[in-house]
Amino acid sequence: MAAYASGTAQAADSGRGRDLRAMSFNLRYAADTPPNSWAERRPVMRELLRRAAPQLLGTQEGLYGQLRDSAEDLGPHYDWVGTGRAGGSLDEFAAVFYDVRRLAPVGYDHFWLSGTPYLIGSTTWGNTVIRMATWVRFRDLRDGAEFYALNTHLDHAHQYSRERSAALITDRLGALDPALPRIVTGDFNVAAHKNPVYDAMLGGGPLVDSWDAAEERSRQYATFHGYAPLVPDGDRIDWILTSPAVRTRRAVINTFSRHGQFPSDHLPVQAWLDW
Description:
Oligomer: single chain
Structural class: alpha+beta
Strand content: 25-35%
Order of helices and strands: EEHEHEEEEEHEHEHEEEE
Low-confidence stretches: none
CATH class: Alpha Beta
Number of domains: 1
Distance between the termini: 38 Å
Largest sheet: 6 strands, mixed
């Protein structure tokens, strides 16, 4: 039996405003060893993605082949922007997927979360795992309006690195066209409201947390579950942040699984956005 959350494409679409369906999802890198190998998870991932039909999807941890699989599973109307965090295609990506029927990239860039952000693969803040961010300037094909999407994955072990990374991301966002909205997706590896990284991301942008700003939201669960039982009211370490002018009509932590199999060790977070 499958378990579902109210995170389908139809759950909140209303025909009002821009109605952009955004998602942030740590895919958990593809591994061959069961349990929870990519071969076991991919069919569940496919069903979740097709049900949710995000028009903008920031992913973390995806390997190149896994991203190609996900693009295929999303369907023929999707493309993505990204590069491996060590450069090339042989490491994890912070890739941004988009529905080509709705969005067109008009510019993009990558930078590394270090003191030398344009040195590929650089790490200078104590973290041993390479961390990076990718941003894309999109044009909405419905009306020509543009916005920025930035996707990232902060370090899992080093608070200093996370704090410096948050400051760098805030600085880079501030250098973009201030007239355009921002949507930030990511696995921040710290709990919302419980860490200076959260305060830095929301205090220097300015950005707001779509979960808190949402007019309607699902039940909250810890977004990292590690294939263990879900934790109600647990920590949100995966966030969708937006410019204050962006309206979040609904926010969802999607608990979809099938026959006890989750698509990842994280739960995807979704937001229905207007501006």
